[in-house]
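To: structure desk
From: M.T.
Subject: fold request, one chain
Message: Could you run this one when you get a chance? Sequence is below, nothing fancy, just the single chain.
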Amino acid sequence: MKPFFIFDLDNTLYPPEVPLWRAVDDRIELYVREKLGVDGPEARTIRKEYLGEYGTTLRGLMQHHNVPPTEYLDFVHDVPIPEIVPRRDDLREMLAALPGRSAVFTNGSESYAQRVLSALGVEDAFVAIYGIEFMEYIAKPFPFAYAKLLREAGVSGAESLFCEDRHENLLPALDLGMFTVWVGGREGESPVHAVVEDVCDLPQVLPAFLGNGRFRQAR
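Reply: Done. Structure tokens follow.
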């Protein structure tokens, strides 16, 4: 079996200078304010608590306020993605050259991910999108979602490489034996396998994944 490449979406497949996630973040706060009838500071406090306990604002709202997930996801992802996200031909070329299958693993919805990938010009570069619905709304960094992804894809952790911009989301992947790449991370501040400034720099660290015996042992 060829190696399996797993990519986070927001601030990973596009750089953080692209303000898409900030637009979504603003929509999340607006939803909390309107749904719960609170002001901005209280909405931010609630979000911080839910993010810490559940990994996403959505999960906390589902647990404590019976919020329908589709209602929430439709609202927070209602942003003009084509106007915000530029096409990335360099990303398309990098993905096309990878020696294996690629998939997206995101705490966003599948439809949101599809729209982002279309704007980037890489919608046909992935064999699957594993969104929050696939995770049964138990989001990264909870291990459940990672284990379910590997089962669904039919691969082991040792056969997989995971690119992600959030350090805490890489730790469960490490525990499952994945080769972990911290996009935009800091050298020496984490046990991850590699750090790259931009996801398109991934080929620079591929020899460490493919050439140190991990993949040969997994075949």
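Reply (cont.): The domain at 4-15+86-218 is CATH 3.40.50.1000 (Rossmann fold). Let me know if you need anything else for the meeting.
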